[in-house]
Design brief:
The complex is a heterodimer. Chain A is mostly beta strands. Chain A is built from one helix and eleven strands. By secondary structure, chain B is mainly beta. In chain B, strands 2, 5, 6, 10, 11 and 12 form a six-stranded mixed β-sheet that branches. Classes of the chains: A mainly beta, B mainly beta. Chains A and B meet through β4, β5, β9 and β10 of A and β5, β6 and β10 of B.
Chain lengths: 120, 115
């Protein structure tokens, strides 16, 4: 149980285009999903917290108009990188917290496999 | 504010040797602590977690960690390293309780296992 998928696993795009990344909780409902960015050989940096049915909460320094997050259902959150530039190239990882009370009490997050974005 | 510090960005051990990855935390409230493993180009997999129950926590793949409040530490150990343990390991802290508390990650420790 507690499987999170991401699609696509990798994407290459031209500068100026927009890219959408999907994060799905496959066998549980997730009221909260998180989006992280990881640069090579570095730790995960939290970009935003996504709550189902409400606006995402962005971390300081993350441009909300650049990284659009939508959490329209309890099993799906999307991250859209708008007008992507080479500096947006990174590994994007999502995680999801179960809405079940037992799991929520431990603040455990279940991570997706990540999406490698390369902007040319 | 909460934070974790992982001492040693790179650790190398011989196959069969003890693995010790260090993590110290800072938290003004009782913390939840986690160890995750990341293989190349993959997401994170939870190894184990401390949630204020037993201070010695056993996880998957033979790993365990001990919560020591007096030392504000949560070091990860494994008695005998396998080649398959080579990966990046992240320690993380979260506030106990709450619905949307964030995970704060350390900078990671890359474990190499020599044959």
């Amino acid at each position: 149980g507690a499987v999170v998928s991401q699609h696509p696993s990798w994407v290459i795009c031209k500068s100026g285009t927009s890219v959408k990344i999907e994060c799905r909780s496959l066998d549980f409902q997730a009221t909260t999903m998180f989006w992280y960015r990881q640069f090579p050989k570095q730790s995960l940096m939290l970009m935003a917290t996504s709550n189902e049915g409400s606006k995402a909460t962005y971390e300081q320094g993350v441009e909300k108009d650049k990284f659009l997050i939508n959490h329209a259902s309890l099993t799906l959150s999307t991250l859209t990188v708008t007008s992507a530039h080479p500096e947006d190239s990174s590994f994007y990882i999502c995680s999801a917290k179960s809405s079940a009370s037992g799991r929520s009490s431990y603040n455990e997050q279940f991570f997706g496999p990540g999406t490698r974005l390369t902007v040319l | 504010a909460q934070s974790v510090t992982q001492l040693g960005s790179h650790v190398s051990v011989s196959e069969g040797a003890l693995v010790l990855l260090r993590c110290n935390y800072s938290s003004s409230v009782p913390p939840y602590l986690f160890w995750y493993v990341q293989y190349p180009n993959q997401g994170l997999q939870l190894l184990l977690k401390y949630t204020s129950a037993a201070t010695l926590v056993k996880g998957i793949n033979g790993f365990e960690a001990e919560f020591k409040k007096s030392e504000t530490s949560f070091h990860l150990t494994k008695p005998s390293a396998h080649m398959s343990d080579a990966a990046e390991y992240f320690c993380a802290v979260s506030k106990s309780g709450g619905a949307t508390n964030k995970l704060i990650f350390g900078t990671g420790t890359l474990l190499a296992v020599q044959p």
